[in-house]
Amino acid sequence: MKELEGAIVYALKTVFDPEIPVNIYDLGLIYGIDVDDAGAAHIKMTLTAPSCPVAGILPGQVEAKVREVPGVTDVKLELVWDPPWDRSMMSDVAKLELGFDLGFDVINVTNFK
Question: pTM of the prediction?
Fold first, then answer.
């Protein structure tokens, strides 16, 4: 099932919050992915805020994208608000894409000899 979970993560990284130019997985909106032996996926996700303008659209996009993954037989999407999303849930990749300071200097290692 780990391979199928990886394929689901890959699919989720193609879904973007239209207000923030980062995929929803790296944004930290996906709280859990469970896949049973039959290929049924249970996705637990949140939004950046309960009043998020895409609340009526984004969960359906996520469900549709996961259904496209070969091997997924069913999708149950659970929208949760606890814990509330905050910036600390973003991956370092997302923070860098949005220009947040990670607390350390990023250097170009391709020029090291």
Answer: 0.83
